[in-house]
């Protein structure tokens, strides 16, 4: 019962959220122009990384679960013919539709209102994305969603998951509206559903890694290995004591 109440709190929180810019999504009070600049560079580099990991293939369809105002969803058009964004917040969806119209790509995009736990149209979905949305599901709902995604056709399709982690010292815990899990906790859940990790990286390492690569001309693997400790020294206390870092996985379905 406690868990059920907590889930509705998370849904309610998101359903009632007004859209007044990037802070509505990130829950951060950092200046909006700074967040937008950072996120825009971050999205571009993650997209680059996804393209590298997916290989030279054009995907048929991407489904973005918990799409918010659609910035990521529209970027996925670089990978696929069509994208679908799903969210419980009507204002976010309106903003997403406006951005798609302004970019002239309405015919390739669809923004739907709904709960990701109830959604089941994965036809031709070569990639399903869960960007900063799995932390709003309790353990049972998360496992049920992963099980559904693992068994829905097409076989061998990919999942991209990005979420905040709990620090390994603190362990998994339930925050005000979200569920913070350790990296190991997530990876055990993926393994139980037969989801294989194809690529993984800390979000915090993505931008410094690119900078190290550009400055020192290091190969990607080395710049990524070095970037994480560099960032960790700056923000290590928070990362160790409470919340870990945002992490990204690209998974392959059985
Ligand atoms: C932190 S935002 C992330 C938005 C976007 N994916 C991104 O990465 O910027 C989390 C999003 O998940 C949505 N969400 C939360 N629970 C959901 C649910 N059960 N079904 C569909 N969307 C949900 C929220 O409305 C919100 O837009």
Q: How would you sum up this structure, described in words?
A:
This protein has 254 residues and is an alpha/beta fold. The chain has one domain (2-202, 240-252): 3-Layer(aba) Sandwich (Rossmann fold), CATH 3.40.50. 46% of the residues lie in helices and 22% in strands. The protein is built from nine helices and nine strands. The protein has helices at residues 2-15, 23-26, 32-54, 71-75, 90-102, 139-151, 183-192, 203-216, 220-241, and strands spanning 59-65, 80-87, 109-113, 125-131, 158-166, 173-174, 179-180, 196-202, 243-252. The protein has a seven-stranded mixed beta sheet. The protein has a two-stranded antiparallel sheet with strand order 6-7. A hairpin with a 4-residue loop joins strand 6 (173-174) and strand 7. Helix 3 crosses helix 8 (203-216) and helix 8 runs antiparallel to helix 9. The relative contact order is 0.13. Residues 1-6 have low confidence and may be disordered.
Name some characteristics of this structure.
254 residues; alpha/beta; 7-stranded mixed sheet; globular; disordered N terminus; binds S-adenosylmethionine
Percent range of helical residues: 40-55%
Text of the CATH class: Alpha Beta
CATH 2nd-level architecture: 3-Layer(aba) Sandwich
How many domains? 1
CATH homologous superfamily annotation: Vaccinia Virus protein VP39
In short:
The protein contains nine helices and nine strands. It is of the alpha/beta class. Bound molecules: S-adenosylmethionine (SAM).
């Amino acid at each position: 019962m406690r868990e059920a109440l907590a889930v509705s709190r998370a849904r309610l929180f998101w359903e009632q959220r007004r859209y007044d810019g990037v802070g509505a999504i990130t829950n951060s009070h950092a200046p909006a122009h700074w967040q937008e600049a950072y996120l825009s560079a971050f999205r571009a580099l993650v997209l680059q990384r996804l393209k590298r990991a997916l290989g030279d293939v054009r995907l048929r369809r991407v489904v973005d679960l918990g799409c918010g105002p659609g910035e990521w969803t529209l970027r996925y058009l670089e990978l696929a013919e069509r994208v679908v964004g799903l969210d419980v917040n009507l204002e976010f969806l309106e903003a997403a539709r406006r951005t798609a119209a302004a970019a002239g790509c309405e015919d390739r995009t669809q923004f739907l209102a709904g709960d990701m736990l109830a959604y089941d149209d994965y036809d031709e979905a070569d990639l399903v994305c869960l960007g900063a949305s799995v932390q709003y599901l309790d353990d049972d709902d998360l496992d049920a969603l992963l099980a559904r995604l693992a068994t829905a056709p097409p076989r061998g399709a990919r999942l991209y998951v990005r979420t905040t982690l709990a620090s390994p010292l603190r362990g998994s815990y339930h925050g005000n509206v979200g569920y913070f899990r350790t990296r190991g906790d997530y990876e055990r859940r993926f393994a139980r559903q037969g989801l294989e990790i194809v690529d993984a990286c800390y979000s915090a390492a993505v931008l410094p890694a690119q900078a190290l690569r550009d400055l020192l001309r290091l190969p990607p693997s080395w710049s990524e290995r070095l970037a994480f400790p560099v960032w960790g020294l700056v923000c290590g206390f928070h990362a160790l004591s409470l919340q870990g870092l945002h992490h990204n996985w690209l998974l392959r379905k059985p």
